[in-house]
Amino acid sequence: MSGFLILEADGAGAHPAAWRAGRTAPSSVLGAEALREVALAAESAGFHALSYTDGPLPEGPDAQARLNAVQRAAFVGPLTHSIGLLPQVDTVYTEPFHVATQLASLDYVSQGRAGWLLAASDDAREAAAVGRSVADGDRRRAEAGASVEANRRLWDSWEDDAVIKDVESGKYLDAGRLHYADFQADLGNGEGYFVKGPSIIPRPLQGQLPVAAPAALVSEDDGPLSPREVDAVLVSEPSLERLRDGLVRLRESFGPRAEGGPALVAELEVVLDARGLSAADRLAELDAATPWSTGRARFVGTAEELAVVLEELLEVADGVRLHPAVLDVDLPELSALTLPLLRSRGLLRAGEPGNTFRAVLGLGRAVNRYSTEAAQSVAAGTGAQA
Length: 386
Hints:
Blueprint: E1 4-8, H1 18-21, H2 32-45, E2 49-52, H3 69-76, E3 84-90, H4 96-109, E4 116-119, H5 124-129, H6 137-156, E5 163-166, E6 171-173, E7 183-188, E8 191-195, E9 211-214, E10 232-235, H7 240-254, E11 263-272, H8 279-289, E12 297-301, H9 303-313, E13 319-324, H10 327-344, H11 357-360, H12 372-379
Parallel strand pairs: 1-2, 1-13, 2-3, 3-4, 4-9, 9-10, 10-11, 11-12, 11-13
Antiparallel strand pairs: 5-6, 7-8
Helix pairs in contact: 2-10, 4-6, 9-10
């Protein structure tokens, strides 16, 4: 089965010293033109989605800056036509109601191409910014699970036909088709929160935005965030061999896609031969400024060799998220060589204008839990797809 590719498009590239080697002036990395160029180049190349990382940046000699991920995705939305937009949004220090409405708005801006790259921060700086203590592992997973459920209920709080625009009666919406979320989050130790709802934004165009979460947050049993509550799981391991093994293990644990298991997405850093330099020499030059250490698997070599590695990964993964070392150096190589090779071998899904991000993941439109259709489904014992 053909797979999909996500491009991580944060800043000048994934390497902390990327700004030193890119063509874009450091003062312009956060500018509108740079955002536009990367998005259009990725869409033209055939990438299926762009992701935008958020949160505090590493400190050090190559200190960087970034803009809010949702805002970047919202800017890119009207400029693109087929590529999915996957901003990272934290679940620990961000109010679920705000997350739900911002992401629903992004879905409208992008005409159904939005997703949610879920994060649960353990960064002391983020905690201090909102006057909270740092969340430990169990608390982080509990916060993530509660936030996903709150968001899903808020997205469903407007039925699809709630907006009636009845000129004769003067009614814009049918209040009977709006529903209270009434969600109580239990975070342990007597702590939690309550979300009443309904949302202030009509139901997203996709019904439910696809939710992608790191494997570290997803419980392999009946924990706070189970595999059935997310649509994609990002799998990161320190080597290609361990990455492949991890994908196989998680597929066995989470179950096949045909039975409701989440899509598995391999995380891979990429440094390619480019501009007459070998990938190894490029990496050494970048590392001389600031070493690149993330714990993700990394490919260093030619664009053609990368196509072979991706083919092997797509045998066990549904998709791969690529983290190019330097965007405006590695992206042209990916576009001109790697992706065409994968397409010629029938390994990539077709990306077409009008595709939703749910379609990229092989998901149909979600049934609203509050609708008559959902009630009939439950009564019949078939359930409703989230």
